[in-house]
Each structure stands twice: as structure tokens, then as C-alpha cells.
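> tool_call: predict_assembly(chains=two)
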Amino acid sequence: MSSANTLGRVDSLQRLRDRMTELADLAALDMLATWDQLVMMPAGGAEARAHQLAALARLAHERAMGEEIGEWLAALDDARLDDLDRDIVRVARREWERARRVPAELAAERSRAHAEGQESWRRARANDDFAAFAPALQRNVELAREYGECLAEGGSRPYQELLAEYDFGLETEALRELFGALVVALPPLAQQARAHSPRRELAVPVDVQHTAVRNTLRLVGVDEQGWRLDVAPHPFTAWIGPSDTRLTTRYNDGNLESLLSSLHEYGHGLYERQIDPTLVRTNLGRGTSMSIHESQSKLWENHVARSPAFADVLAFELEGAGFPVAPAELHATLTGVEPSLIRVSADPLTYPLHIVLRFELELALIEGELAVVDLPAAWRDGMRRLLGVEVPSDALGCLQDIHWGAGSFGYFPSYALGCLIAAQLWEAMESELGPREEELRRGEVGPIQAWLAERVHRHGRRLDTMPLITQATGRSLGIEPFLRYVAPLAGRAP
Amino acid sequence: MSSANTLGRVDSLQRLRDRMTELADLAALDMLATWDQLVMMPAGGAEARAHQLAALARLAHERAMGEEIGEWLAALDDARLDDLDRDIVRVARREWERARRVPAELAAERSRAHAEGQESWRRARANDDFAAFAPALQRNVELAREYGECLAEGGSRPYQELLAEYDFGLETEALRELFGALVVALPPLAQQARAHSPRRELAVPVDVQHTAVRNTLRLVGVDEQGWRLDVAPHPFTAWIGPSDTRLTTRYNDGNLESLLSSLHEYGHGLYERQIDPTLVRTNLGRGTSMSIHESQSKLWENHVARSPAFADVLAFELEGAGFPVAPAELHATLTGVEPSLIRVSADPLTYPLHIVLRFELELALIEGELAVVDLPAAWRDGMRRLLGVEVPSDALGCLQDIHWGAGSFGYFPSYALGCLIAAQLWEAMESELGPREEELRRGEVGPIQAWLAERVHRHGRRLDTMPLITQATGRSLGIEPFLRYVAPLAGRAP
């Protein structure tokens, strides 16, 4: 082996790492521009922002797809890399090879179809007119199938590859099993829970909520040095840098969604902040998948914010802000169960059933077993079967979510997986650290943060979803922890 | 001529235009990231933001410098282009050729030296320790000279080329003449004005200022649809898109800087908004130079906000916000003259003298006629000669501005030119539209906006500074309009 060769190898590694760093920086800029668009931008900026985001996306795509990356990858001898570099190269190779399988024309056509599909969906939902949306949806389904087929290269089924865009390594069959088990177990629990833990209203003035949200977030570590909290119509989180996390929430007089959603978003933010600093600005320095990300938000929403113990803290903060409420009443309000029409306002028990329906339907659409024209009827059937509710209109039915209009097939499952993973992580944590009840009652979350950092967060993308779960909890993903979590809502022992 | 050739030509033009569009989008993203950094970003985001901005700058530089641009330019037959394309190509060629003259190592070294120079300057100013700053300043002077020499290619003098970075076509000799005339005319006026229009204090509560600033800006067209107003320690304006303009200002209990600075920044913002829509996202779709930009801010600051007529409007807004004040008293407060140490808080009459001093000194530094070690003494001499004030410390003297620490030589003149150009434009406008007094008293600025749009703004970068002034005012730039503007402050007829 000549020293020139060694140099070539080192050089290729350095160039690859530099490129990954550049792509991480561009991704952060994309997140910043998107955050600004949704939170700060005057409405008049929309057209220019669309151009700016498109320019950034084009550049990032070009830099991620370049022939030179293939040359660098080919010049590397993986066996000679250290552990970290091996993972960087492994993930870089995987993504580069996937991206290269998609013809440029297909990528461009999807991009156009998704933009048009969103617009079409928006109008159709406003007018409760599914037929007006059907052609755009049909186009999105066909393009998604074609995209999945390109990625599969004749190996797996296309839907599998669509899942992989959000959750690499997740198998359609595993989802069928998990979700199939939920379909058996959850509906009877839901019917019991609607009697045992009925939905309640608690009208808390918005200014009280403002104060309580700020103070609760401060308690879990949200300071002005490294976080922002703003209002957005659809709450989300932006991680612009390891010490620049931007949460959003929304406030309604009629409910306490602001408390739940801000702790939900905090879970996303904390995940990104606790990734190992050595991974920052590499291709491993972000959350590993949509489902693990959602597990982090659901953990703080379901297992902290909705716990009987943390109700003490939330009641204290509400009282401090001028709204006295008994912790038990507050907890009952945050956990009331009522099978209902809309996913985003569903209770913690029935929420996964909304997702199971969407998984069944999108899988059938992609596999060609369900025609777009039959979607509204299939939706109504599914809602009756899974949740026992009648769907009065498509606007409150299959038109309620933007995802399919935007071409996002394979995304929905992560929402339900998040619930399952959160419950399993929580049990693993409690079995190791002991019950969290006493500490949560006092608002002490340091050990929770530390456990999550060690078992989940620090790995970034070095571990994919399923290996991460197995390593963190000692077993593969199941539904039992989640069933034990919701059992008390139905008046059963966990 | 074969049709293949024609196609190649059309294709080259389209590629060039596409590249210019991309660079405009990247520049907007840079401005957004910078605005966010200064206005919204939590402090913890600083390190990541520096990386993000650097990544963007590297990419933009690479895309602006590519060999392929030279090929496209060579393939074009300028005679066959329409007027707009000819200007796009002319400016693209000029910038590409200038950029190519600078070796990459020099560009990188300057970038490092400027970052270090700013840090060094910050510490030196805090400790009033010029000697600690001298080595970094020395380095910046040498690199600026070398940079200017590269650009000059043995033609003009290096300082001329530094000027051209901010104001293409501006000649050092023209500056010498204009500023030389100011040195003769202004100091005696200043001495009379400090007696005739003495500096006054007016302590307006910050919340009153908030309301008055918002309402005054609304009056001149700042709506929520296309503008933002935020607070920044050093006010500036960001134009993220033609309908997304972000002003900043700052509030102090002790003075009315917020009113002046918000109208000053409004002038910058209006300029960018009124550029011809056909130029948007080309390389011509922004303000043509630093001095014209500064003339637009100075026009609104000096000729609107500081006018006796507009004092009626400002007094009305202050009274509406709970602070009654006589318009005459308000006007006197906004125009009081007092030769003083600090440029950024100087009155409208003495302000240009602060700039003349900096021009003389930076020119001497670059030309090698003044050694860095002699700068503090030269500064003190200059302040005595031009403003009649004694400089008690370098922190209040030659260390007060960041520009030289950041390597910005040739930038200062635009501040004084802005004052001169604003006065000349204002006279040209009034000689055409008639005196503005009556309308300004009622807060009517529509005709002013329209005149500026037609004569200045719409051209974008199609006209450089001096041709633009000649075309807009019918004469070349002189100091007389500015002298007539300040004469009343000294108790003289305009």
C-alpha cells in the first residue's frame, strides 16, 4: 500500500465529512427559514420565501447527489475507519445510494405534484369536496408508488420504501402485527374508558395558560439562553443548533392544549439537544427517525404531562397564574376519553386507532387494493369499526389531514409508534430508576432527562429505530406497555 | 450564423440569469439568518449560526466565481441582448471579473483577519487599549491594500478599488473635493448653530415612544402584511423579499432616537421595496450602492422626520400616546446642534465632519501616509480641527467604530455622501413637486414615495451612484443643497 493511497483515503474521508457538515448546515438554514415562515414572516413574504426554500433545497439536493460522493465512498476502506467514521460512511452510503435510484424527472414531478396536491387539498377541505381532490390524490398515489418502486429496485414492496424515508429499517409486516394487535385490544378499552374517564371541559383564560406554560417549561429546563417559545397555528419545533431550540404552541380559551402541546414539543427539542456533541454537524447529528422523535414528544406529553403526579405541578402553576384547580380534576381533564372524529384532538387512548386507520388505507392505496374514489367510504367504514363513530362529512373524515395531499405516504405510522415506544421506554426507565411518581410530583425531571440522554438521545442516527428500542429497553417493540399505560383510564389495573 | 449558435447563446443567457436568481435567493437567506441572529436568536445559537452563515457564504462565493460563468459570458453577444439583459450581463461580467482577480488565499486570509480584528477591537474598546488593537488593525490595513491592488491590476490606486466595493464608480478625487469643501463650510456653521440651535433633552417614556413609532410608521405605509418592526441594539433593516421588510429600532428613555432611527430605517426599506418588479431576483434587484442607500435613509431622517412641518405629525402621535409636546419644541429637540465625540449620536449638521475625518485617516492608512501607531494622535488632531472637541480617550476616539476592525475600508464615505445626496434629491423633488411643507404637516408622503420610486428606487442597480444622481437631479453631486438644508440651524437663510 502506497502512502499516496493512504492519503487518498484520508482525503476522501475528510471530503465526505466536510460535505456532510455542509449539508447539516444547509438543513439548519432550511429549518430556520421554515420556522421564520410559520412564526415571524409577514404574509407578504410568502412568494419570496417559497423561492428561497426552493433554492436551498435544489442546492442541498445537488450537493447530496454529486458523483464525487460516489468517488469518495469508493476510495474508502471501511475496515480502516474508526467506529464513528464507519457509521458516518455507512449512513452516507445508504442515503447516497437511495437518492441515486430516483430519476431526476421523477423527483421534480413529485415536488410539483406535492405542491399542487396541498393546494388542491386545501380547497377541497374548505368546500368539503372530495371529488375535487381525487385527481391530485390519484397522482400522488401513483407517484409515491413509482418512487417506492425505484427505491425497492425489485426487492421489497414499494410501501416498505416509503416507510424507510421516515423510519429506515421499519418493516410493513411488523406494523401490520403491531397495529393488528391494537385493533383487537383498544376498541373495547375505549368503550369502557369513555364511561370511566369521560371527557371534561376546563375553560382556562389564555393569559393564565401563557404564564403556566412558561413556568412549567422553565421547570424542565427551558431557559432564554438556548430556547424560544412562540405561537404557531400548528405547533412544531425547530432545532436550529444544539443550543438553539424553538418551541411553538397555541392557546385556546376552551382547553389546555397549550400545556400538553408545549411539553410535547419540548420532547422533540430535548431529543435534538441531547445528541452526543461529537455527532453535531455530521450526518448522524439528528434524531434517528420520525417514530423515535414522536416517542420523545409522546413521552413528555403522555407520561409526564398526563401523569397524576405531574398534575400537582401543573395545578400549582395554574394556581400561581391565578386559576386554582384541584390536581385530580386537572388530571381528569387532561386524560378524558371520547372516541371522536379528529386525529389531532384525540384523547391518549384512542389516538393510535386514528393512525391505524390511516395506515390500513394508505397501504391499500399504494398496493392498489383501494381505489382513490373509494377512499371516503373506506374511511367511514374504518371509523365505525375502530372508533364506533359516524363520519358526517369528508371534511371531518378523509380530508382532515394534509399528509396525503402533500404526498407523505408512510409518515402516519410514526405517530402511533411514538405512543408505543414512549410507553415501552417509560417502563424500562421506571424499572431501572424506580417509579417516577414522587419526583414528578415535585417537578423533578433531571433523572428522566439523563436516562433519555444515555439510552436514546446521544446516539443520534447511529442506531435505527428498532435496534435502538431493543438496546434501550432490552426487548423488541410491543403494545403491552402502551396497553398498561391506558388501562387505568378504562378503570382496569395497569 | 447557425441556429445551434443561437441556441447556445440563448442557453448561456438563461443559465446566467438562473445563476443570478440563485445568488439573489442565497443573499436573501443570508439576510434572514443575519436578521434572526441579531433580533430573535437565543444567545446559545451563536456558534451554530456562525457555521451556517459561513456555509452559505462559501456556497454563494463558489457559485458566483465558477468558471462556467466565464463561459456563459464569453458565449454571449451583447449587441443582441435587450436593454434589461444587457444590464444584467454588464453587471454580472463586472462582478465576475473583479472577483476573479482576488486569489482565493487572500480572500480566505481577509475573512479570518476580519473576524479576529473584530474580536480584537471589541476587547480593545472595552479596555480603552489601542495598543492591543494595533497589530490586528495593521494586518487589516495591509490586507485591504493588497486586496485593492489586486482589483486595480496596476490601474487605479488601491483605495479607489476599496470604495468600489461599496460604491462602484466613485472616485477618490471626487470625494476629496466634496469633503474638502465641507471642511471649509461646516465648522463655522457648527459653531454658530451650537448657539442658535442648542442641544435639548426631552425625556419621553419608552412605552409612549413605542406607540408613537408604530403609529408614525403606519402613517407612511408600514403595515403588518409586509413589514415587521423589532428592537435591536444597533438598528438596521433587512429586506428578505420585495414584500417582506424588517425594520429595527431601539428605545431609550432619555431621547427620541427611536423616532429618528425608525424613519431612517424605513428609508432603507422603502428603497428596496420600490425597485422595479422586473428586476426582482436578478443581479440588479437591490439598492445600487451604499451611498444611495444611505441617502434614502437620510432623506427620511433629515428631510422628513427633522422637518418643522413633520414635527406636527410627530407631536400629534406623541400626544396621542400620552405625551403632549409643542411641535416647535419637538423640532428643536430633534435638530439641536452640539459638536461631540461620537459619530452615531451626532447632530445632522456636524455628522458629515465625523465622516470626513474617517475618510482622511483611512485614505492615509491605505496609501501608507499614516502609520497605525500614529492613528490616535491623528484622530485627536482631526477632532480638534474639524469639530473643536478634545478627545479624552481612544474608546471615545478612534476605537468607537467597528468598521476598521472588521476590515471595512472605503465604507465610511457613504454615510456623508448619503447626507449630501439626500439634500440634493430633496431639492430636486421640491423644485418639481413644489414645497412639501403643507403635505408633510398632514403626514402625506405619497408624492414623496412616488417621486423616489420613479427617480431613484425603480432603477435598482441599473444605474451606478453618480449617473443616478445626475439623472435624478439634473446635475452632478455638490454640497450646496446640504449647506442650504443646515443653514437654518445656524440661523442663516437656506
